[in-house]
Amino acid sequence: MPTYAYKCRACKVNRDVFHRMAETPEVSCPVCGGPMVKVPCLFNMSRGSSADARRAADQAKRRADMKVELRQDYGVENVSPIGKSDFESVYKDVKASGEAVREQMAASAEKNAAKTAAKQREWKKGAVKRVPKKSRAIAKRQKERAAKDRAIRL
Questions:
Q1: Residue 113: count of CB within 10 angstroms of its CB
Q2: Which residues contact residue 76 at a Cβ distance below 8 angstroms, ignoring those fewer than 6 apart?
Q3: Displacement of CA 104 from its chain's centroid (Å)
Q4: Is 1 helix (H, G, I), strand (E, B) or coil?
Q5: Runs of H (alpha helix) within the chain
Q6: pLDDT of residue 48
Q7: Rg of the chain (C-alpha set)
Q8: Residues 6+ apart with CB under 8 A from 15
Q9: Inter-axis angle of helices 87-96 and 98-150, to 10 degrees?
Q10: What is the per-residue pLDDT for 1?
């Protein structure tokens, strides 16, 4: 339920009251017992018109749909307009040169895959060199434990 602010006419005491929007309760002052009046809320009045809100919501939905389309059709994950350009102009440019964008994205993906494969090969080479050192250290510790277990304790 919404909270409404009320003010006493006589002693100017403020009070918050919870009630439904359709209700108009008789609110009395807790101090003097006089009638209280509802105080207009400036928050609700400063929002702007509902047409502006609908227009903004429609624009946000249209932009989200455009981003989804760019991601699905062209593989574009992030669009960052540069300079004075806006999202709509970038979207139109991508749509106009869609095949070129797809080719650039595919080339970039291949390049990244090649870099990843090279890094993995280098890591495997290093891992082959590291394994014998670890194996020797483990074997040495096992021998030391076995020697301790065989030792005669007095």
A1: 10
A2: 70, 94, 101, 105
A3: 28
A4: coil
A5: 42-45, 50-69, 87-96, 98-150
A6: 53
A7: 36
A8: 5, 6, 7, 8, 27, 29, 30, 36
A9: 100
A10: 62
Question: Could you state, in chain order, the average pLDDT of each consecutive group of 10 residues for the chain (154 residues)?
Answer: 82 83 81 84 54 81 85 75 77 79 82 93 77 79 87 65
What does the longest C-alpha to C-alpha distance in the chain come to? 99
Residue written as tokens 């018109």?
A: 49
Q: What is the pLDDT of residue 41?
A: 64
Angle at the Cα of 21 (from 17 to 27), degrees rounded to 5? 35
Q: In terms of Cα–Cα distance, which of 138, 75, 71 is closest to 104?
A: 75
CA distances in angstroms from 40 to 5, 34, 68, listed in the order given: 8, 19, 42
pTM of the shown model: 0.34
